[in-house]
Amino acid sequence: MLKNRIIPCLDVKDGRVVKGINFVELKDAGDPVEQAKIYSDGGADEICFLDITASNENRETIIDIVRKTAKECFVPLTVGGGVRTIQNITDLLLAGADKVSINTAVVKNVDFVKEASKKFGSQCIVVAIDAKKVSDNKWEVFTHGGRNKTGIDAVEFAKKVEESGAGEILLTSMDKDGTKSGYDVDLLKSITNSTNIPVIASGGVGTLDHLYDGIVKGGASAVLAASIFHYGEYKIKEAKEYLNSKNVSVRL
Amino acid sequence: MNVTIVDYQSGNISSVINSFTEVAKGKVNLDVTSDINKIKSSDKIVLPGQGSFKSCVNSLNKISGLVDTLKDFVITNKKPLLGICVGLQMFADIGYEESETKGLGWISGKVSKIDNQKGKFKLPHIGWNEIEIQKKSKIFKDIKNKSHMYFVHSYEFIPDDKSVISATTNYSSKIVCSVERDNLFGTQFHPEKSDKIGLKVIDNFLRL
Question: Which residues of B are tagged catalytic?
Fold first, then answer.
């Protein structure tokens, strides 16, 4: 039986982890390679890097980090943030990323998914959708970290990216992100019910129960979380053991 | 020992290179090339494959003499080859991804889309699934039944001769996830992405 995945996400800015794990044994708390290694040794099913570097000059740093991480972590590595061109994807894949997550570039032009999945295969194209609730059971796609409204309906958009060849959807609730009050389960349900590709839930995890809700109530195939793992509140293993105790199948 | 990972310009093989490099360290000389002469003189070959069946077969055919060289290596000279993902699928006679495409025909059978029972199972089949070992296989030495491996695929290999199947995995039905026939090995899962247990599969292959 296919297992539900737990994916820790590391935010990387100018080559350094922000909001990183606060473990005493870390030699360098800002080193993304070292943190990724801790997660993969701890049982993470995948590792996700989100590059939040603002300036273009420092874009190269993420390539270097991916290269180093891929030599030490032998679980799938997803990289997102600032991916706008086919060349960006090529660079990340050549450096050792297994999947690339695309966001704004797809909102601007959904054919970019088609082009990318045709060239590299659907298996490595993840479309990140940032959605915000606009009325009852209605969500809209936002870009630029929730600042820019697009007028695009999130459910319709999810269907469209599936048709265009996306292999997975990384769905973040902009209302919930950073609140630690749990995923937007209704949003998740709406998207998982109307698409046939795996959906990764993101935004809002504060407790292990939230992970359970994302999978069981929301229908997500994988759950992504940042802060509950970074600050050492929970280890990946604890999260998996908890889910397992509630009959959610995970890789132990 | 010389092991060659065939680089035929199809998909992303960085992870395959990284994991084989890690396991081969100090033991095996590893080459990544499509050079026919290098391949001929190798002791073992790894045939990765990403993207569609059609695009992988087309890429192999684009390199003059490559398909014949691989066939000689495997069928005539009976030297070990490991196919990974679409690398395994191409062993078949025929594949149906994008359009009907002739495969390498090393193990008769076909590659068709996983029956997802009208949307009950999401495709691609992405993530960690347990393998059920069906017969003793050299590449599964010291690997426990029901070990977790990492999968990413929407198509499955259906061999005519079921005795080649060395492991299956359960996803909507029993999917063939590895085959072994004499010197020919293939995994549908990605050993290079399957953590320590995947590296063990690679190690077993390199130790053959």
Answer: 85, 190, 192
